[in-house]
Design brief:
It is a single chain. Helix content is about 80%, strand content about 0%. The protein has about 425 residues and is mainly α. The chain has 2 domains: about 210 residues, MFS general substrate transporter like domains (Growth Hormone, Chain: A), CATH 1.20.1250.20; about 190 residues, Growth Hormone, Chain: A.
């Protein structure tokens, strides 16, 4: 495996990346496998464990409710611990320790979830795994300033998202085959074996592709402090939040912009299937086009890498926001599966780029020695994404509006995000 990764690093695609940059990109490839599984097969497997009429089983509606509650619990926990983990990891030689702990706990949780035959245990293990996964991303994002130079951040960050989209398809294909061979479809494999293969191959992929980063990463930016208490940690976080609100207007306005436009992005992604269902579109066709979106997102991210040589990060993020604004308006015309495919293609063009460029831009405007703490705050805005947009869709639908009009209303989020991004970018001139 070591020789294979070394060979990849020497290919035409990756040869311009340093070993540290390449190792960092690989973690996006590794962790994306789990999130792909979370968005597709894990809810299905959970319902397979939970739904039934006997003792220890629940109804389909109850299963949906409990799974949604679990997702909400993850969001709240991550929002609370993200800044804490980030702040603690900023201290000298601590970032790798915290990152390694989160990764291995997440991988172990993923493996054991595959063995869970009780729905309560399944949910608990899933929550633990998702929290550890999310915490690892907080630290991982903050590593960007350590593994590359500022002028290369856009490129390296975009490579991470791009190859993450493609890389996630490899273990997911194995997991999907295991599911197809399971009792729900072909029936060759028993449910416990099918489920374990899916979780097991995902965990193995996550582990193996992460090892190069654990080997090559060295923390260059850090805070010197011999000893820190819990009280000092919270005091530091509140002090930073106050500083952002009163002094660091560039970071403040960017976070407001990020929250608005990423809320729109998250809402569209989370509600893709709901959009198609409301329009009575073929479910299989929807899934096929959504999987194809991964490939489109890969190409789109690499295309924006090329553009980053000529245009500023703000200009590129602005272009992505405008793209999503047009997608929202296009939703007014949605009627057929072809229209849905065009929508999915549009989302794929900008999905990876707007996330990767936001990550790299934020890395450039924050203090590098406090990157963990600042990315913990960043994650509060990121993990909370889609709740306002989802609320808008719910209100429009309850008021009797169409799903087309509901999605079109999301254009407001992108318009406001564009405005606040421009305000953030002008702060240097004002100062």
């Amino acid at each position: 495996m070591k020789s294979l990764l070394a060979a990849l690093n020497n290919t035409k695609v990756f040869k311009d990346l340093t070993p540290e940059e390449f190792s960092w990109v690989l973690y996006d490839v590794g962790n994306s496998a789990f999130i792909m599984l979370s968005c597709s097969l894990i809810p299905i497997w959970f319902k397979g464990v939970a739904i039934g009429t006997g003792a220890g089983h629940i109804s389909s509606d109850e299963a949906t409710a409990f799974y949604s509650m679990a997702i909400s619990v993850v969001t709240v926990i991550v929002a609370l611990i993200g800044p804490i983990v980030g702040t603690l990891s900023d201290h000298r030689d601590k970032k790798k320790i915290f990152f390694t702990s989160c990764v291995f706990l997440g991988i172990i949780g993923c493996v054991f979830t595959g063995f869970a035959s009780n729905w309560v245990l399944f949910l608990v293990l899933f929550v633990v795994t998702k929290v550890c996964y999310s915490a690892s991303l907080t630290i991982y994002d903050s590593m960007l300033g350590d593994i590359t130079r500022e002028e290369r951040m856009d490129k390296v960050s975009s490579y991470g998202y791009a190859w993450g989209y493609i890389g996630s398809c490899i273990p997911f294909t194995v997991a999907l085959i295991a599911y197809v061979l399971g009792p729900d479809m072909v029936g060759i494999l028993p449910d416990n074996i099918s489920k374990f293969i899916g979780f097991g191959v995902t965990a193995l992929w996550w582990l193996v592709v992460t090892l190069p980063l654990l080997k090559n990463y060295k923390q260059k930016n850090y805070v010197e402090r011999d000893k820190i208490t819990v009280k000092q940690t919270f005091s530091k976080i509140f002090s930073t939040l106050k500083k952002i609100a009163t002094e660091d207007k560039k970071v403040l306005f960017f976070l407001i912009a990020f929250f608005l436009y990423i809320d729109g992005v998250g809402t569209i992604i989370d509600n893709c299937i709901n959009i198609g269902t409301d329009l009575n579109l073929n479910t299989v066709g929807q899934v096929v086009f959504l999987l194809a979106t991964q490939v489109v997102a890969f190409i789109g991210s690499l295309f924006f890498v090329k553009l980053s040589k000529k245009y500023s990060t703000v200009q590129l993020i602005s272009a992505c926001i405008c793209g999503y604004f047009c997608i929202c308006l296009y939703a007014l015309t949605l009627k057929t599966l072809f229209h849905f495919a065009v929508l999915a293609f549009g989302v794929g063009c900008f999905q990876g780029s707007i996330q990767s460029l936001s990550r790299s831009y934020y890395s450039k405007i924050i203090p590098p020695e406090n990157s963990g703490e600042y990315f913990g705050i960043y994650d509060i805005f990121s993990k909370g994404a889609s709740f306002l947009g989802s609320a808008v869709i719910a209100v429009v639908k309850l008021a009797g509006g169409s799903i087309n009009f509901a999605v079109a209303c999301l254009a407001v989020f992108f318009a406001l995000g564009f405005v606040f991004l421009r305000i953030a970018d002008k702060q240097d001139d004002l100062n």
